[in-house]
Specification:
With 288 residues, the protein is α/β, with parallel strands linked by helices. It has nine helices and ten strands. The strands form two sheets. Strands 8-7-6-5-4-3-10-9 form an eight-stranded parallel beta sheet.
Length: 288
């Protein structure tokens, strides 16, 4: 539960919050809001002050219907951000949300410590060699299809077993390369129906059999706002409810837009689990 990620220790004995920074103009929730380094610096400062210990930065939209972008185009968007943020935020974990090995290598060379790859190496197999060379953290995510078509009637015989088999196979491949700094992500919303997503959440604890830390990305997703018939902007309360369930069922990291509310979930859960020791609940020094 402790990973050395490109020289930075990630201790997952306590629950962690990953704050989301979308540089893409086309993100489903906050696209175009963070279109300058000043805005991104301010946003990260806010996320960290509210409990985020990991910041995930990406320039490629992965919302349903979006197209893939190549490494050059992605770096054109975010290389300046990578350099600036590496200098400004040395005491937290910076994660690069990319499926392009060239982008991953550039970010890791500047001090980023984690690679978050929605494709699990499918789009650029060299990304496995890059994370191995830098001994970074690597988020291995399941996705059925591609962002452009993944929500066009996805079907499984058994969605949970299918994801587990996929992740196990990829873990074995990475281990054969001599790499083991793996965090697993079942990929809520990536080639899954709403029913599939709720089944994964219900059985999330079963992913602990893979013996890897689990990250979940439920924040303001369609399984919330379509179920409740609201908008992503109105989905914070639903996100909080599902994050609590995910934590109870074994999630180690919450990937969120709203760090303060996620930290409150963690605080309440820890307090509930240690009701007779409320004055000494260990949250790694964090408080709300």
């Amino acid at each position: 539960m402790t990973l050395n990620c490109n020289g930075k220790i990630l201790d997952l004995h306590t629950k962690k919050i990953m704050g989301i920074i979308n540089l893409s103009q086309d993100s489903f929730y906050d696209g175009g809001k963070y279109d300058s380094i000043d805005k991104v610096n301010a946003r990260i400062t806010n996320l960290v002050s509210n409990g985020a210990e990991i910041i995930d930065i990406g320039a490629a939209s992965s919302k349903p219907g979006s197209k893939l972008i190549d490494s050059k185009k992605e770096l054109d968007i975010e290389s300046d951000y990578i350099i600036e943020l590496s200098n400004n935020f040395r005491n937290i974990h910076l994660s690069i949300d990319t499926y392009n090995s060239g982008v991953a290598e550039f970010a890791l060379s500047k001090g980023f410590s984690i690679v978050n790859d929605i494709s699990a190496g499918r789009y650029d197999s060299n990304i496995f060699n890059v994370v191995k060379d830098y001994n970074s953290g690597y988020i291995l995510m399941h996705m059925l299809g591609d962002p452009e078509n993944m929500q066009e009637n996805p079907e499984y015989d058994n969605v949970v077993k299918s994801i587990q088999i996929f992740l196990k196979t990829k873990i074995q491949k990475l281990q054969e390369l001599g790499f083991d700094n793996i965090i697993i992500d079942p990929g809520f919303g990536f080639g899954k129906s709403i029913d599939d997503n709720f089944k994964i959440l219900k059985e999330l604890e079963s992913f602990q059999t893979l013996n890897r830390p689990i990250i979940v990305g439920l924040s303001r997703k369609s399984m919330i706002y379509k179920t409740l018939k609201i908008t992503p902007e109105e989905s914070l309360n639903g996100t909080t409810a599902l994050n609590i369930l995910a934590l109870e069922r074994g999630a180690n990291i919450l990937r969120v837009h709203d760090a303060k509310e996620a930290l409150q979930c963690i605080c309440l859960l820890y307090t509930s689990d240690a009701a007779d020791e409320r004055s000494s609940v260990d949250l790694g020094g964090r408080r709300i």
